[in-house]
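One chain given next:
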Amino acid sequence: MSRILVAMSGGVDSSVACTLLMDQGHEVSGCTLDLFDQSVSGSAQPCPATKAIADSQKVAQRLGIEHRVLTIHGIFREQVIDNFIQTYLDGDTPNPCVQCNRHIKFGALIDEAVRLGFDSIATGHYARVRKDERTGRYLLQKAIDPAKDQSYVLYSLQQDQLARAVFPLGGMSKAEVRSIAAREGFESAHTGESQDICFLPDGDYAGFLERERPEAITEGNYLDVQGSIIGRHRGVSRYTIGQRRGIAIALGYPAYVIDKNAHDNTVTLGESAYLFASALFARDVSFIPFEHLEGPLRCTARIRYNQGEQPATIYPCESDMVRVVFDEPQRAIASGQSVVFFDGDLVVGGGIIAGIDRSSLTRPTP
């Protein structure tokens, strides 16, 4: 059996992951990541790391396993928080969980595990990994429970990371996990799940950006689809593609954010119909079953975490970019978010949305 270091948050998923691995006979230790100090979030609530460490220690003591804390404020700041800030300031919409998984949970934590002599790391993610004996490559698959599947935020994991990744919950439903937690007497068995960004427990990303980079968030012009100035906005970073609330301008029709330009400090408003496009470009693309895309590939794709998969074709471009053409126009494609490709339950890969293919924009019928 293996020596496995489990990323522990003190929550139900990581606690049950420890239990399952121990039941399988593995040598298990827990590790909680201390990612940032209280001053980062600006929240009056207790620092999330403090609670996670305390809760994880209780679970580890109950299970009789070793527990350690890995403090990595510097790399988390560089790879996740600074990237989050800069992406917003560039006029895009970041996905910090993707960055955290690649560089922190399956980056810094794997480095620590190897240093300590562990064979693998495990997390409470709902996903599955297996080795393709024919090609020798490690494959990422969706979880059995589609309601809990988290493969979307794991698409960027590389082969060396997947080779050391263990997902004990990938073949289970959340109800089954909670049942095990209740049986083991874990306090987290019946607690709710947090959907917040860990360093923004109050969800106020605009306030966070103002604290971090107040000089970079300035008022600018609202534009209509013809490029005419129609009002003033409160800073490009406060808006996301497809947003309707908080625009604070009356145009005589329901208005949405259809475009942003950080360089010109403008936000373009228009009717919902202007949000649709059938193609996008993606950068920083990585694939899992193979190294490079040699030609067009049929797949399904998701442009955000909570969206259903849509039939599409991927076309290779220069500089490790791809063009993704959907069978049907998609609404509110946002640069900075991830587009992830699937073939059934197999994660083919994904990348960061660099922008829409403007030749594919749909327009309202005059």
Q: What stands out?
A: The chain has three domains: 3-190, 218-270, 275-360. The longest strand covers residues 276-287. The chain has a mean pLDDT of 93. The CA atoms of residues 176 and 210 lie 42 Å apart.
